[in-house]
Specification:
- The complex is a heterodimer of chains A (114) and B (111).
- The N and C termini of chain A lie far apart (37 Å).
- Chain A is 0% helix and 53% strand.
- Chain A contains no helices and eleven strands.
- In chain A, the strands form two sheets. In chain A, strands 2, 4, 5, 6, 9, 10 and 11 form a seven-stranded mixed β-sheet that branches. Chain A has a four-stranded antiparallel β-sheet with strand order 1-3-8-7, with no helix packed on it.
- Chain A has 114 residues and is mainly β.
- Chain B is 0% helix and 56% strand.
- The termini of chain B are far apart.
- Classes of the chains: A mainly beta (114), B mainly beta (111).
- Chains A and B meet through strand 4, strand 5, strand 9 and strand 10 of A and strand 4, strand 5, strand 9 and strand 10 of B.
């Protein structure tokens, strides 16, 4: 079955702008989470959504937000972009029906803020 | 103290050898443990998951978990140059789909 799909794959934004990233989870998966990966901080958890509700949230400022739609697709938004927001943003999906909580990642969205 | 610690490497092994990657974690509430492989410029790819103490084998990969020592490891047998990548250890609390990652160990397999 198809994996986690993220769009766009690459984008360049200017400081102060805002950006929206999109994610379609694996079919049947209802949990979608977002991660940020930078060379300095590594992979960090942003937030997780399940059935359109945010269940978990990482330690990021309020400029980072997300939402999930009824079809489990998710978007994340970063407002007032800063240079430090340049990163690989990864979406991951998971099924509650699986034993444990195995999480599968999409290919990511590379964001460059100039 | 970082929540999940890994030696950044690089760990260099000759082709055909066993590569041993280690990870320690600080939260005793951690219940799920994962190893991901990440090639440069790519997203993490799940290799192994382990939830109970002991060993779990999948092909050339063996994950080992010791909750008492808060230690998880990954063994790669018959290492191949294609195994050269960064290996990320990740842990999560029961029922939480929020992974805490180590900084990763870079593995180099020399032909």
């Amino acid at each position: 079955k198809a994996g986690v799909t993220q769009t766009p794959r690459y984008l360049i934004k200017t400081r102060g702008q805002q950006v929206t990233l999109s994610c379609s989870p694996i079919s049947g998966h209802r949990s979608v989470s977002w991660y940020q990966q930078t060379p300095g901080q590594g992979l960090q958890f942003l937030f997780e959504y399940f059935s359109e509700t945010q269940r978990n949230k990482g330690n990021f400022p309020g400029r980072f937000s997300g939402r999930q739609f009824s079809n489990s697709r998710s978007e994340m938004n970063v407002s007032t972009l800063e240079l430090g927001d340049s990163a690989l943003y990864l979406c991951a999906s998971s099924s509650d029906s699986e034993s444990g909580n195995t999480i599968y990642f999409g290919e990511g969205s590379w964001l460059t803020v100039v | 103290q970082k929540e999940v610690e890994q030696n950044s490497g690089p760990l260099s092994v000759p082709e055909g050898a066993i590569a041993s990657l280690n990870c320690t974690y600080s939260d005793r509430g951690s219940q799920s443990f994962f190893w991901y492989r990440q090639y440069s410029g790519k997203s993490p790819e799940l290799i192994m998951s382990i939830y109970s103490n002991g060993d779990k084998e999948d092909g050339r990969f063996t994950a080992q978990l010791n909750k008492a020592s808060q230690y998880v490891s990954l063994l790669i047998r018959d290492s191949q140059p294609s195994d050269s990548a960064t290996y990320l250890c990740a842990v999560s609390l029961t029922g939480r789909r929020a992974l805490t990652f180590g900084s990763g160990t870079r593995l180099q397999v020399q032909p």
